[in-house]
Each structure stands twice: as C-alpha cells, then as structure tokens.
Amino acid sequence: MKKQRAFVYRCSSCGHEEPKWLGRCPECGEWNTLTETAASGPVPGARISGTGFSGKAAAGTPPQSLPLSSVDPQEGSRIESGIPELDRVLGGGIMKRSAILVGGEPGIGKSTLLLQIAAAARTRGRILYISGEESAGQIRMRADRLELFAQASRIEIACSGRLEDINTLLDSVKPVIVLVDSAQTLYSTEAGQGPGTLNQMKYCVWELISWVKEHDAALFVVAHVTKEGLIAGPKTLEHLVDTVLYFEGAASTINDGESRFLRASKNRFGSVDEIGIFIMGEHGLSPVEDVSRLFLVRREGELPPGVATAAVLEGSRSLLVEIQALTVIAKGGISRIFSDRIDSARVSRVAAALEKHLGIRLSDQDIYVNVAGGIRIAEVGVELALGCAIYSARTGLALPAGLVIAGELSLTGEIRPVRRLTGRLRTARGLGFTHFLGPLASEGPAETPESFDGGTFIPVGTIGTAIRSLFKAGPEQGR
Ligand code: TYD
Ligand code: MG
C-alpha cells in the first residue's frame, strides 16, 4: 500500500498536483507555480461529488471517496439560453455549475452574444453581467440597439474587473447566470503577481468558476483572441473551463450581413460537432432561417469552371456549400496551396490523388480554394467535390449545373462512403438540385439510392469514373 502523504505540491495556476516539487508544472507548463499544500483539497478534473467544490484546499480534512452510483448525475439542470443556435452548440442548453469560455477576435460579437444571452435566458433567477470592458452607459446603448427594452430590466450590470469586488457582488446578488466581459480585464489584489499577468487572469477565472460550482450557477467568460496571442492568452484558460466556444466570422456577399459561426472546441456536456450559425445585422445576432442554402451562390445558367457544390455535414445538419478552386502556374516552380476554409493538407492530398489517378498536372500549379460564405469545412465528405472543383479549374471544363457532390476521396482514387447520405440527398433535392454524384457503396444499409425523389443519383466508385461520368455521360454534358 502506498504511504499517504500529508503534503503535495499543487500548481497555483491549474491545480495540478505533484508528489514532489518541480520547477515547472507538467500539466500547464507554468514555471514556479508549485507550492506545498495539504493533500486533501479537490482538484479540477477530479470532481467526484455532484455537489460542487471549492478550488481551495480544505486543510486537515481527510480525503473521501464515494460510490459512483451515489453521485447526483446533474440531470435536468440545464437552462435554456433562449438562443436555440447556442443551445445546440452547448448540447441542449446552459449546464448549471458549468463555466463556458467564449473566445474570438475583437469585434466579432462576443459582448453582443453575452448581452443577448442575458436578455433571453429562460430562468427566473438573477442575471449578472459584469463588464470590465465597457461602461454601463455603453452597455445600455448596445441593449437599446439590440432592442432589449423589456428584458433590460432583468439584467443587472456591474462594471468592474476587480475580483474582490466581483466576489462581494456575487455573494449579495446570488445570480444564476454570471457573464463576465472579459477575462483579460480581471485582476485581483490577492493574487500576488502584478495585475494583467497570465497568472492573475487564471487565478481570477478559477475563483469565479469555484463560485458558480458552489452556488449552482453558470458562468460565461469572454476571452479575446488575437492571432498572435492565441497560445499565450485564452488557450491557457481552456483546461479550467467545461466548455470552450469560439466565435468566428466571415464577411459575406451572398447573405445580407456577416455570418458568424459559433463552434465548441471543448465540451464536457455535449459534442463538439454542432455549429451555431448567426448573421450579425442591425439588431445584433440573429439565427439563420434556412441554413442549408446559406452558402450557395445564386447562379443562372452554366457554372464557371472551378465551381462545385458539395453536400457536407455540420453536426446534425447537412449544408450545401459552393467550393471554388483556381489553379495558376506556380511562380518559381514551387507549387503552393492557398486555402483557409478547407485544410491545406486536405487540398494537397486531393490534388495529389487527382494528379496520380487522372494524369493531370497540378504539381506545377498554385492552387487556390475558397468556400462561398466563408464557412470552414472540416468534414471528409467534401473531398470528392473539392477534387471535381480542382479538376474543373485545371481543365477549364465546367461542371454541370444542378449537380451536388458528396464523397470521401482516398489516396487510391476510390470514393469512400459518407455518413448520412440520405440527409444530404434530401437537402439537395429540397433546394432544387436534380443530380447527385456520390459514393457507390454507402455506410447505411438503406442508403444506396438509384434516384432521389425525381432526381438522378450517380454512384461512382473511383475519381476516374466520377470525372468520366461528369464530362462524357454526365447529366448536362460538360463541354
Ligand atoms: P462586439 O459584441 O462589441 O464584439 P466583441 O465583444 O467580440 O469585441 O461586436 C462588435 C461589432 O458588432 C461591431 O463592429 C458592431 C457590430 N454590431 C452590429 O453589427 N450590430 C449590432 O446590433 C451590434 C450590437 C453590434
Ligand atoms: Mg466586447
């Protein structure tokens, strides 16, 4: 049996415990943060009781365990945010006793989202919006712009970044939802290090998390992300919180306004597959009525070369997106890929498969890939469409209009089946597409449709047959 130790070395920044002192915390990588503590306090990630916990070590009390079956599973303790797109991303609402980090670049709409949550959340409890970024007057102006007249009376505002003030306020208001804008403006006079340091920010966020865990509340905390500061800033908060949401956007010419995508990169209470799609307009963020057509470019007649329509999955939804490719002779003989909406490694792989199996030259070309509407596509089902778009761009042969494509392209040139083909077909049909190019075999037993509801399903086994069927015997005969 191991000897029970009276002391451990706990990291003041992430709570990790080590049996012996180390100069650097192996968990979060911070230097000089391990300090000797009584070996009894609960630590993050090691919560066994459903009844909350304190971040502070309870000196002297012996450690306890209990049967897993006796733990309250916290079922039914979600609050609807009143914003269905957000609830979807969170996995069915705001989990009580949870901490949610909302990251994103400045100006993307984080404060707007927080204020809208404050206004819409379906709870009778009190809602406290704490801002160290803006004055109460500015927040009021924003609320008016969002037309939150009736709801504004239930949102309580405090403008401070000082942890001690916030703690006092929390204890007197006892809110059910706490919204903090932003982590970067938090500081504590007790944290020891100079204000504004990373450790200060982490200490303050950790204290707020402890408060909501103990008081059956939920915490939203904003963190600004800049491209340079990604690692040094909010990334270090990610392991403290239960859920990490990133807000990203793209100016879009095909939908009126700017699209905003809310994705979970970590979610202890749901999947990370779902994406929330909003449009930032005159009156703040609004959900998109018909997501499936949001990323389609309205076109009359023939398509230009380099354009293919893909049916992709985003969480539980299927979307149609327009993939656009362009190839030009590489300068200096070095081929490069410019693609920020589809992973460049994927583009490279698809291009290599095309070169090998279709005999077209791409290794002397620069390849540009874009997705209309600015959405990032990470689903493998996009590969066949991507391949067709690149082939079309390289050869100058346009794909037939009215065609939707889905399929994974393996390095061997084979088209692999995709998940939920039926859903994709339905979406394509619903939006008036007549032809669907897809995998020969399918993952589900009932998913090998020869025709889809009046349209034509073209099953293909390899990229070679796909290209031949599109350009020789295809629906509207490519030139
Ligand atoms: P904001 O929520 O302040 O961003 P963040 O907190 O992430 O920095 O949103 C800023 C942008 O959103 C700003 O450019 C103005 C725009 N906006 C609208 O277009 N409509 C609105 O109703 C609101 C409130 C903001
Ligand atoms: Mg803001």
Describe the 3D structure.
The radius of gyration is 26 Å and the shape is elongated. Helix 6 packs across helix 7. It folds into three domains: 1-41; 79-289, P-loop containing nucleotide triphosphate hydrolases (Rossmann fold); 294-470, Ribosomal Protein S5, domain 2. The chain is built from nine helices and 24 strands. It is of the alpha/beta class and 479 residues long. It has helices spanning 84-90, 110-120, 136-145, 163-173, 198-214, 344-358, 383-395, 421-430, 463-471; strands at 7-11, 17-18, 34-38, 78-79, 94-95, 99-104, 127-131, 155-158, 177-181, 218-224, 243-251, 258-267, 275-281, 284-287, 307-314, 317-329, 337-339, 365-371, 403-405, 408-409, 415-416, 435-439, 451-452, 455-460. Strands 8-7-9-10-6-11-12-13-14 form a nine-stranded mixed beta sheet, sandwiched between helices. Residues 110-111, 133, 181 line the site of magnesium ion.
Radius of gyration: 26 Å
Give the N-to-C terminal Cα separation.
78 Å
Which descriptor suits the 3D outline? elongated
Q: Determine the mean pLDDT.
A: 85
Number of strands: 24
Within CATH, the superfamily of the largest domain carries the name P-loop containing nucleotide triphosphate hydrolases
CATH top level assignment of the largest domain: Alpha Beta
Helix content range of the residues, please? 10-25%
Low-confidence stretches: 40-57, 473-479
* Strand arrangement, major sheet: 8-7-9-10-6-11-12-13-14
By CATH, the topology of the largest domain is Rossmann fold
Briefly characterize the structure.
The protein has 479 residues and is an alpha/beta fold.
